[in-house]
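Morning!

This is the sequence you dropped in the shared folder:
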Amino acid sequence: MRLLLTHSIRWRLQLWLGFLLLLILSGFCLAVLQLQRDNQLNRVDEELELRVAALSDALRAHPPFGPSVRRLPFPGPGRREFEEGFKPPPRVLGDPPPPIGESEGRRSRRELTLSPEVEGLFDPTRPEGFYFSVWSRGGNLIKGSTNTPPAIALPQRPGRDTRIRIRMLEGNREAYHFTELGDCVLVGRSILTDLAAMRRFTWLLIGAGVTVLAFGLGGGWWLTTQAIRPIEEISASAGRISAGNLSERIKVVEPPNELSRLADVLNSAFARLESSFSQQKQFTADASHELRTPLSVLITETQATLARPRTAPEYKETIENCLATAQQMRRLAESLLALARLDAEQDALKQDRFDLSAAARECVDLIRPLAAKRGIEIQCDLPTTNLLGDREAIVQVITNLLSNAIHYNRVGGQVRIAIATENDAVLLHVIDTGIGIGPEDLPHVFERFYRADKSRAQAEGRSGLGLSICEAIVESHGGRIDIQSELGAGTQFTVRVPRDPREDPSGSLP
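The structure's back. Tokens below.
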């Protein structure tokens, strides 16, 4: 299970999708809940503040000393006050002084009369009815509603602040206000029903969130399954191909997407792999066939010679035939070894700067005696041209091309070798006036062991690997070799290799 969760791409995508979806849903639900709670409490607070303001206005209409009484300060020591419009009864000499607090007692017995509109705001018969309490500055209760909780307490006055404040007390939401004279007005309402509704809304929202999460995870699982399925099919097809079924190809999905492009690349790689394996099998079969013929000749010659006593000239002739056959086998083995090394890139090509024209002249001098035997004229157009590469490998290419041009030429024909430059490339042309190559054979001349004139080539001991070696050497230099031929008119080989990057077009180094 741990391996599945940590290494499975499907589970990684699913867990990441679930985490993001859970995070988004949690944030959304919390925001909605907070917004719903704030809206609900703000609505209650607005109703509470409305009733506090109405009670405060009614309280201001009933001041402590009645509507005709006002308090005026007297300057001087003691700052005593007198009440204009209020004349206490005359005191008789010898009467006891009024008790302390008598004035405050009169103030505490204030009457607060509410208008019908204000009383309508406090209907005790409603299940969520509002209640109120009004206290004087001294803390005495002036008036209260019948549904006021018995344990309600006078709020603590916050200094000289006269703003309306909100508090929570045992499931009740209350708003209170201290007037300028120090009286306190408090209005409250039970919000247990509102809290229950908010809890129900919370559970409803959680249920909706869980449902959305379940659908999201299910859809995510389906999407990841659909996304992973082509990868699984590619993996299964690649497994069957690696098991030996090289002809199988990966099914390309439609419409084209990233995985279809990957399938195209893999199919191309598998096609090259199949071609390489087929070529390797054909190469092995052809090599076995080519080696079997000289080996059969050696065995036959040896057995025939040993069957009865021979004269010295006959032994010599047999030995010469065996030597020629062994040399043919050696050339074939060397060609096979050269191709194997070029395929495996075991022999790193040298990167020396040399004169291509000088190397070509050496090849012409080497091949000239063979051309002279058949009366073939070799024409040269070899201007001085520098090249960066492996001189010995390039000499082998030129020698093989000249050898082919002579072997497949007419008696008394011509061979022309020329060097030219074109943009950033050096061109080497080898042109003959020989028998040419037919259109059906032209696409196959660079294939290994392929011979356009099989009977003649086999009689002359040619293995059909020369052009294959030439092509491999030229491609290892970053170039290519092209062929143009017309049956009965001649053949032209063109070798194109990159020019030395240090050399300017004039042929000199900077």
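Headline: Confidence is low (pLDDT under 50) at residues 67-89, 91-95, 97-108, 455-459.

More detail when I'm at my desk.
O.
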